[in-house]
Write a structure and sequence with these properties.
single chain, 159 residues, alpha+beta, Arc Repressor Mutant, subunit A, 2 domains, 4-stranded antiparallel sheet, 7 helices, elongated
Length: 159
C-alpha cells in the first residue's frame, strides 16, 4: 500500500484468481486463492465475508479505480479532501517562498546545528540576538521551526 498526497494505491500481486472474469470480479464474486488461509481469517475475525468490498468500491469510485496490469491488480482510491498533513506541508512550502534572507539564514543554520543556542545562531548569521529572536518567533509562527525538549537541553527541528 502506498499513500500519496491525493490518493491511496493498493497493489495485489497475482492478478485475478484463475477462472474469475473481470465482470465476475466487479460483481463481487468471491474466489479466495488460498481457501485455508481465508478460513483462518474468518475464524480469527479478520473478515466476515468475501466479495462485498469490490462492489462498494465500484459504487464509490467507479471501475476506473481498478487496473489490471502485468499480473497485478492495483486499486487507486482518491481522497475526497486534502488530508491535514498535506495541507500543513503545502502551507510550510508556501511560507518558505516568502522568507527574507535573514530568515533563510537562521533556518539553514538550525537545520545544520540542531543543538545551537540563539546566541550562536546570531553570531553565525551576523545578526543581533534580538534580531534572531524575532526571526525565530516568525519561523515558529509559520510552522517552519520548532523547539523540542526542555530549555536547558533543547534542540531545533526544521520542518
Amino acid at each position: 500500500m502506498f499513500v500519496y498526497d491525493d490518493r491511496i494505491e493498493i497493489s495485489s500481486y497475482g492478478g485475478l484468481p484463475y477462472g474469475l472474469s473481470e465482470d465476475g470480479f466487479f460483481a463481487g464474486t468471491s474466489k479466495p486463492v488460498n481457501r485455508r488461509l481465508f478460513d483462518i481469517f474468518i475464524a480469527c475475525g479478520y473478515c466476515e465475508q468475501s466479495g462485498h468490498g469490490i462492489p462498494q468500491i465500484v459504487k464509490s469510485y467507479g471501475k476506473e479505480a481498478f487496473s489490471f496490469r502485468d499480473g497485478m491488480l492495483v486499486v487507486t482510491l482518491t481522497f475526497a479532501y486534502v488530508p491535514e498533513f498535506v495541507a500543513a506541508r503545502q502551507a510550510r512550502s508556501k511560507a518558505r517562498e516568502t522568507l527574507n534572507n535573514n530568515q533563510k539564514a537562521v533556518l539553514l543554520y538550525f537545520a545544520d546545528h540542531r543543538k545551537a543556542t540563539l546566541r550562536e545562531a546570531a553570531q553565525a548569521c551576523s545578526l543581533s540576538l534580538g534580531g534572531v529572536k524575532k526571526v525565530v518567533q516568525k519561523l515558529q509562527e509559520l510552522g517552519l521551526l520548532e523547539r523540542r525538549g526542555p530549555r536547558n537541553a533543547s534542540s531545533w527541528e526544521v520542518r
